[in-house]
């Protein structure tokens, strides 16, 4: 299964980028599990957690983001957030 | 002819000035490195935001109830010139270059019968604008509003500007800042930030919308295009201002570094010139004294 390329960007830095099995984005209309080959979507993101899955049951890391927006296109997922803080 | 003593004090004062300028140069180069890395870190976000905005803007250009921030209000009578500058001086022609560009623009707009207002970010250009365009400054930021350069600060400024736009204070906003290429070259730049779509309402934008629809296919919007656009627009303005402030901060340090390098070199040149003059004068004094002694001895 192809990996999803994702980027999490804030105004002050590129917080994280890489390839993942799935990224769960807290959209304003509900959480989205984005995997490779997701249809092109633009969504506003509510303040909450972005979870990056390295495999089906394995959460690689979580980010708390606020003031965000996400774009999914054929190249992958881009999350623009005003703030992103890694949780451990 | 200056006296020996006055030459000596001049040399020593130039020496201490050159110490200061050399220190400032080193501080500026350290700050420049930091500013450069911040600028580089901020570029991905700004780039992505610009891409998303242009896509959304092209799609929304055709819709009749488009947002005023994007397409304007169909007027362009009052122009707000947002002029950035530094908070500290001694940075060469940095502030003057930005001001010159803004002034040209303001004079051209006034000649065309438009009303011009100024919004000054950074304290150094505020007095110049107040003197030359008196009563036209709507706001000049205080030091606390712009330093340190953070996204929150940029956002506050953006909110203030958007509020003024919503209150109908102006129709078009131009942003003036210094674009950073390298230490040696910083270019004063102008961009229009409100309305965001430069060719708003014309056929070109609609063409772009059509070609974009054809190429990118169906995109799903959650909640819907307009809600997204209306939340993104203020943010993209904040990003534009943040980016301008960062570019400016970097350019300022670059400009200060080269200005201080020049003045250190000038100080060195002056010191060597004055030392030669001092030595000549000293020799002349000794010669005169000798001549006086010898001729005095001969007279005995």
TrEMBL record, chain A:
Main location: membrane
Record localization: Endomembrane system
Keywords, comma-separated and alphabetical: ATP synthesis, CF(1), Hydrogen ion transport, Ion transport, Membrane, Transport
Any one cellular-component term (Gene Ontology): proton-transporting ATP synthase complex
GO molecular function list: proton-transporting ATP synthase activity, rotational mechanism
Membrane topology: Peripheral membrane protein
Range of residues in the leader sequence: none
Residue ranges of domain ATP synthase F1 complex delta/epsilon subunit N-terminal in the record: 4-84
Annotated InterPro entries: ATP_synth_F1_dsu/esu (IPR001469), ATP_synth_F1_dsu/esu_N (IPR020546), ATPsynth_dsu/esu_N (IPR036771)
Family membership noted in the UniProt record: Belongs to the ATPase epsilon chain family.
Main function: Produces ATP from ADP in the presence of a proton gradient across the membrane.
Name of the protein in its database record: ATP synthase F1 subcomplex epsilon subunit
Automatic annotation (TrEMBL), chain B:
Subcellular location: Cell membrane; Membrane
CDD domains hit by this protein: F1-ATPase_gamma
GO molecular function, one term: ATP binding
Region (Disordered) location: 193-215
Any one of the GO CC terms: proton-transporting ATP synthase complex
Chief place where the protein resides: membrane
Keyword tags: ATP synthesis, Cell membrane, CF(1), Hydrogen ion transport, Ion transport, Membrane, Transport
Superkingdom in the source lineage: Bacteria
Topology of the protein relative to the lipid bilayer: Peripheral membrane protein
Biological process annotations from GO: proton motive force-driven plasma membrane ATP synthesis
Short name of any one Pfam family annotated for the protein: ATP-synt
Subunit description: F-type ATPases have 2 components, CF(1) - the catalytic core - and CF(0) - the membrane proton channel. CF(1) has five subunits: alpha(3), beta(3), gamma(1), delta(1), epsilon(1). CF(0) has three main subunits: a, b and c.
Physiological role: Produces ATP from ADP in the presence of a proton gradient across the membrane. The gamma chain is believed to be important in regulating ATPase activity and the flow of protons through the CF(0) complex.
Protein family per UniProt: Belongs to the ATPase gamma chain family.
Stored HAMAP family: ATP_synth_gamma_bact
Entry protein name: ATP synthase gamma chain
Organism classification: Bacteria, Pseudomonadati, Pseudomonadota, Alphaproteobacteria, Sphingomonadales
């Amino acid at each position: 299964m192809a990996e999803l390329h994702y980027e999490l960007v804030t105004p002050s830095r590129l917080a994280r980028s890489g390839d993942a099995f799935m990224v769960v984005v807290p959209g304003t209309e509900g959480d989205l599990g984005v995997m490779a080959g997701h249809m092109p979507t633009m969504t506003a993101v509510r303040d909450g957690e972005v979870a990056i899955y390295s495999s089906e049951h394995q959460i690689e890391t979580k980010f708390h983001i606020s003031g965000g927006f996400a774009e999914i296109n054929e190249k992958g997922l881009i999350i623009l957030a005003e703030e992103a803080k890694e949780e451990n | 002819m200056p006296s020996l003593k006055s030459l000596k004090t001049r040399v020593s004062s130039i020496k201490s000035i050159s110490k200061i300028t050399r220190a400032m140069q080193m501080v500026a180069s350290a700050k420049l490195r930091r500013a450069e890395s911040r600028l580089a870190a901020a570029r991905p976000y700004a780039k992505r935001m610009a891409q998303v905005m242009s896509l959304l803007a092209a799609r929304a250009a055709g819709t009749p109830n488009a947002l005023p921030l994007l397409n304007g209000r169909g007027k362009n009578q009052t122009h707000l010139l947002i002029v950035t500058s530094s908070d500290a001086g001694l940075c060469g022609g940095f502030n003057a270059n930005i001001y010159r560009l803004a002034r040209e623009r303001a004079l051209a707009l006034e000649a065309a019968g438009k009303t011009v207002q100024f919004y000054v970010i950074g304290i150094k250009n505020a007095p110049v604008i107040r003197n030359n365009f008196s009563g036209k400054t709507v706001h000049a930021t205080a030091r606390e509003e712009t330093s340190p350069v953070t996204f929150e600060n940029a956002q506050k400024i953006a909110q203030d500007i958007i509020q003024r736009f919503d209150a109908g204070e102006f129709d078009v906003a131009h942003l003036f800042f210094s674009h950073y290429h390298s230490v040696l070259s910083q270019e004063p730049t102008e961009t229009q930030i409100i309305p965001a779509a430069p060719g708003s309402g014309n056929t070109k934008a609609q063409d772009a919308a059509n070609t974009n629809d054809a190429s990118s296919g169906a995109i799903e919007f959650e909640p819907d295009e307009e809600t997204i656009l209306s939340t993104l627009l203020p943010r993209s303005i904040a990003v534009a201002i943040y980016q301008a402030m960062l570019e400016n901060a970097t350019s300022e340090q670059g400009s200060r570094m080269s200005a201080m390098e020049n003045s250190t070199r000038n100080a060195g040149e002056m010191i060597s010139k004055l030392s030669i003059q001092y030595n000549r004068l000293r020799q002349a004094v000794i010669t005169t004294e000798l001549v006086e002694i010898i001729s005095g001895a001969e007279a005995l």
